[in-house]
């Protein structure tokens, strides 16, 4: 939540995932000589899983390392993670703006997919937060709780896996 506040937001409701600075995420990959790439990939896939998108974060991360040593598994998991973010964008009512192929191409250049994927994922968390705030305010006015207590878990058909 501290990073969300540093980005100018003061969420009263918990976000299903953390809004992170895309540039800071990429710089952490550079400073840690690539170690944070593995951590970031696992983290965003875990957040997507917790949000309701079907994914095994451990399996997706193993495609980054050691699978990345072969290159192809790494590019496949970046593409699939982009597709999962697109599913999450649809779930919150956004028109998917992510292009998984663009993330895949960016992955070939100094982990440039990190800021791209993170900025697209931030859109999901912000939209989910706005919806939760709206539902909470609707609950306050009508006295009907509706979905105000929703935690962010969703049931999504046709989710990409792996």
Structure characterization notes:
With 162 residues, this protein is mostly helical. It has one domain. Helices cover 59% and strands 0% of the residues. It contains seven helices and no strands. Helix 6 (100-106) runs antiparallel to helix 7 (113-142). The longest helix has 30 residues, at 113-142. The chain is elongated and about 50 Å long.
Give me a quick take on this structure.
This protein has helices at 2-6, 22-31, 35-51, 57-62, 72-91, 100-106, 113-142. By secondary structure, it is an all-alpha fold.
Count of distinct structural domains:
1
Protein structure class: mainly alpha
Terminal residue distance = 28 Å
Task: Give the topology string: H per helix, E per strand.
Answer: HHHHHHH
Biggest beta sheet attributes: none
What is the helical fraction, as a range of percent?
Answer: 55-70%
């Amino acid at each position: 939540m501290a990073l969300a506040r540093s980005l100018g937001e003061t969420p009263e409701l918990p976000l299903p995932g953390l809004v992170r600075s895309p540039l800071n995420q990429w710089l952490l990959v550079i400073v840690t000589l690539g170690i944070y790439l593995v951590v970031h990939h696992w983290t965003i896939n875990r957040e997507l899983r917790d949000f309701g998108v079907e994914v095994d974060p451990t399996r997706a991360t193993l495609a980054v390392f050691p699978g990345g040593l072969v290159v192809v598994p790494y590019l496949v998991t970046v593409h699939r993670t982009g597709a999962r973010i697109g599913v999450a964008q649809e779930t919150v009512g956004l028109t998917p703006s992510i292009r998984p192929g663009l993330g895949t191409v960016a992955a070939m250049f100094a982990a440039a997919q990190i800021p791209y994927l993170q900025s697209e994922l931030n859109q999901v968390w912000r939209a989910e937060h706005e919806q939760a705030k709206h539902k909470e305010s609707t609950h306050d006015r009508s006295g009907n709780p509706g979905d105000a207590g929703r935690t962010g878990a969703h049931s999504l058909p046709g989710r990409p896996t792996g």
